[in-house]
Each structure stands twice: as C-alpha cells, then as structure tokens.
Design goal:
By secondary structure, this protein is of the alpha/beta class. It is 49% helix and 12% strand.
Amino acid sequence: MLKQRSQLFEVLFIAADLFVVSVAWCLAYWLRFKTDLIPVSKGVPSFHNYLSLLLFIWLIWAFVFKRMGLYRPMRGVRTRREIWLLINANMLAVVFFIAATYLFREKSVPFSRLVFVYFGFLATIGTVAQRSLLRYILREIRRRGYNLRYLLIVGAGQLAGDVASRIRKRRELGIQVIGCLSRDGTQKKGPRGIPVVGKYEDLEKILSDLDVDQLVVALPLEDNHFLPEIMSQIGDSLVDVKIIPDLHGFTTLGNAIEEFEGLPVITLRSSPLEGINFVAKRALDIVISTLSIILLSPLFLLIALLIKCTSRGPVFYVQERVSLDGSPFKIFKFRTMYLDSEKDGPGWTKPGDSRITPVGRFLRATSLDELPQLFNVLKGDMSIVGPRPERPVFIREFRKRIPRYMLRHKVPAGMTGWAQVNGWRGDTSIEKRIEHDLYYIENWSVFLDLKILFLTLFRGFINRNAY
C-alpha cells in the first residue's frame, strides 16, 4: 500500500510539473511574439513549430527532475532545499533543451533565443509555485490526520526522545510515533512519554504484527553492540529503515553525512568554506574591498593627514593577528595610540586610557581605524565578514578557559561579524562573542554575509565599548 501511494504521488507530481512547463513554453512564445515588450523585426513564426517541441520538453524535464531526486518522498526535506533543487533542475533542463533544439532543428525553422530566456524564467517560477502549493495541500491533509506514516523507534534513551519530540513538532510531516523498543522492555513509558511496546529482541515479531511504515534506530551509545542483532531481525522487511547515531556529544561544527567510495562518512567538524562556497566568499571580498578602497581613498588621505598633524609616528599601525586555520598575518590599522604605548607589554584599553591620542579616540569610537584592513581583505589575509582576529598572546589565554574557542579559526577573520552587529565588541563578554562567532560559522551563507554587511552599515560603526 505504501509503495502504491508513493507511486500515485510521483505520477501526480510528474503530471503537474509537465503541465506547468508546457504552459510556460506557450506563455514564453506569447510574450515574445504577441506583446510589445521587445519589437519583433523578422516576422512572427508559426506557433505550431514551437508547439511541436513539447515532446522534447516533457522528456527532458521528466528525466532531469527524476535524476535530481525531485520525485522522491520529501516529507522531511526543508522547503528551501526543494526550491534550490528546482532552480538547479530547471537551469540544467533548459541547457539540455537548448542543445537538443539546436542539434535537431531544421535550418529553415529558427527559434528565438529570447523565447528560451522567457521559458527558463517562467518554468522555474511556475514549478516552484506549483510545488509549494502541492506541498501546502499535502501538509494540511496530514495535519488533519490523513495520509499518515507510522514510525517505530528502536531505542529508549535521550536520542529516541529527541527524535519523537522533533516529529511531534512537525505535524505536517504526517508521521505518527507508535512506540519505542528498550533494552529489556520492562518500563511502560520511554522518554517524552513514548509508549514502550517491547524490547530489542521483539523487533521481528512487532514488525509483523504492527502496521509499521518507518523504523528509526536511535540506540544510546552504550547499546550500539545490539545493532547487528537488530539489523538481523529486520531481515527482508519492506519497512523504511533509518539509523541515527548517538553522536550529539561529539558534534562540534559543520556536521554532515557524505559518501566515500560507497562508504557513509559522518563529518563531526568541518569548515563551511570549501569548494564553490570559498570561491563565492572570496569573490565577494575582492569586489567589496576594491570598490571600498577606491571610493574611500579621499577619507584615507584625510585621516592620514590628521594623524600626522596631531601626533608623532607613522600613520599605520601593524600588528600580528591570527586568521584562517590559526595562520598569523600582519593586520593594518590607522594608528590611534602614542608611540611606545605598549613598551610594558600588550594589554586591553581602558576608559580614559592615556595611551590613546585625541584623533585616535574618535577613530576607535567610529571604527574608522579599521579601514586599512580593506587591504588585508584584498590580499586574502582576512574577509569582509568573519570573526574578529585576535592577537596570539590573547589566543593562548582564551583557548585555555573557553571551550571550542579555536573553532572560530575555521573561517577567515573578518572586518565585521555577527558578534559585532549584535553589540558584542570591544570590552564585552568574550564568551558571548565566541557564541556568536560559532553561530555564524555553523549557519554561514552568502546571504548571511550580506545581512551582516547591511546591519554594519546601519548599526555597526559606532562602538560604545571602544576606549
């Protein structure tokens, strides 16, 4: 029954997708040749020639969407993940469609490039809207208790409770927890009030007696040695099986599941800036730093002149800081202190600190002393957005007393960051700053970087904690 229902929904989604892309193709023709958006100079081609390409469209879109996994069950998949897959699938399908059209077309029947542009845009918008509507309808049906899947949890520890709690919060998934299995099966209630319906060795009998669609193995760490026996009892049962390892205590940053030569690999700690992510962030840094240096060059000259006229010494202050992977670099700042201000060793600035020049006090309060770091960004030492770089002498102190402190170096240091736009800068709680830095790393995206830049422009320059 479960297999039949899955096939029914797959047919429904295929039919809906093909209907939407068909409408998008016809609408693209109408926009190009039946409206005055862009004047037609070479005559209007026959609609029949364009209509004859629908078979290509159906075959290509069905194939690409199938290969991209868009017809697999997506109860637990986030909406933004499905939308991202749809965007990528439509772009790939359009490329295949253009290639096929120009490969098999007759020379006497040219096709408008603008129609393909319109079509790609409309097909993407249309399939995203259609999928969102269908998903909304299905979620509402499940909320009302229809089209449910019944789930059994193997395990009765905290992990099993976490699984049940998350499922109960997401009623739109249409998954109902019927119970869990414990080591000895003696207690009546498991974590979060889950009924205990038996022990591990009863699994085979329970699968045959109860209507179970999905099985989640969520054993406590100390019960992992029961796993071979549990898998043996599952045997050739048609129930869907998922294993959730009890690794909460070991996961620190960027956890993910990957595959290496057919072997599942669980990543407990990694940097989000790998591959295309690193390229995207570096490209953003180069563009912003280059434009900023050009636009702010008059301000650079004015600040340099003020520093030279009001105190003895160089315009710039160079200091060793630490960035990506703990690598040291020389950071550039406008000098805000008198010469030899740290002859007795490094230390934090204090309210009314006599080492700071009058101009330096203003530069610190407005964060203008940080502007030369744009050259560090251009060089690749830093990023525009990231955890603020710290001096090695303080890093040695912080890593001794603050857990996970060094994980902030899994990304390049930044001129501004999530901690700074949330008020944790200057002489504030280092623990709170680390908390915000790790949140930034765990949730990094180009959009988060742009959000932080936007917040910096409106509330990040004035530093009330700068002395």
